[in-house]
Amino acid sequence: MILKLIHDTNMRARGQSEKVFTVNRIKTPKQIDELIEIESDTGTWYRRCFVRIRTELYGIWLTFRRCFNYPVRENTIKLAIVWFTLSFGYYGLSVWFPDVIKHLQSVSLPMKDVPREKYANFSINFTMQNQIHTGMEYDNGRFIGVKFKSVTFKDSVFKSCTFEDVTSVNTYFKNCTFIDTVFDHTDFEPYKFIDSKFHNCSFFRNKTGCQITFDDDYSAYWIYFVNFLGTLAVLPGNIVSALLMDRIGRLTMLGGSMVLSGISCFFLWFGTSESMMIGMLCLYNGLTISAWNSLDVVTVELYPTDRRATGFGFLNALCKAATVLGNLIFGSLVSITKAIPILLASTVLVCGGLVGLRLPDTRTQVLM
């Protein structure tokens, strides 16, 4: 039934709708093992496995090279550019958005510098948040059940102090000195002590595993929530692309979506709040998903059957490489400047969209 439907569809596209599908039986030939001709002196099992693997890899290599032969060579190059640019821009910004929102949260809650002072014979059992302690001296102090949230101690001295049942988030001790100090049931890992010195200190019952909850670190909740909203925004884009794919054409949707995605990136320049950035993320994801859908269809329709799977696999591998590169580059630019990620993503997406418009139109093309 499926083969008949394919036959009738292709014949109508060729203008030969009068032809009738006459196949009523399909005979599957028995596959002949190409290794049965191996001589008996080399016919061991590991030799057979080696030859089979080598033969399969050589066949894949030949098929891959044919993807760069006429008449699909030019299409392969253009598709590679479109796949790379779309993956680089889409996944790069997907990583950049949550980190930028987290950065905006840290900016909205500025760090408070605590004046230099000496504390002795004290006890603290409350939450300390968004503070920087520089040059402090703590003598015979007890930190009991304290939650440190984004607290930094610099050039401070802790003498005869006790940290008991302490949980910390984004908290560090930089160039601090600990003398006769006891750490009991804390989550202080070695990386939290930067260039710090210990003299006659003891660590007991260190907490293991992740001690952070959404109540302790609200920004962690936002990262998941922002990604959820961005993924939810994909649904309207999928519906629109499904309804308009055949009406406006694959290339129009591919190039138009990428160009509009690149243009929408410029509005990120004015994103100074969390709500604005989340709105831009949803708009961006809704536009790019249409480009992804049309790109998948165009890629499949541009390759003949004997090269379709290999060509599609090569482009997907290129997509993964662009994804890794985008994550590395955009992730390193979060706290530096917004200009470079915005301009980079916009340029890449617009250029990729213009290249996509140069691909052959496959809307009425019969599959090879």
UniProtKB/TrEMBL annotation:
Name the source's superkingdom. Answer: Eukaryota
Main localisation? membrane
A Pfam cross-reference name: MFS_1
Question: Which InterPro entries did the record assign?
Answer: LD_SV2, MFS, MFS_trans_sf, SV2
Q: Which residues cross the membrane?
A: 221-244, 251-270, 276-300, 312-333, 339-359
What keywords appear on the UniProt entry?
Glycoprotein, Membrane, Transmembrane, Transmembrane helix, Transport
Q: Where in the cell is it found?
A: Endomembrane system
Signal peptide segment: none
Transmembrane among the record's keywords?
Answer: yes
Q: Which residues form the SV2A/B/C luminal domain?
A: 116-203
Q: Please report the record's description of how this protein sits within the membrane.
A: Multi-pass membrane protein
Q: Which NCBIfam families match?
A: synapt_SV2
Mind telling me what this protein is named? Synaptic vesicle glycoprotein 2C
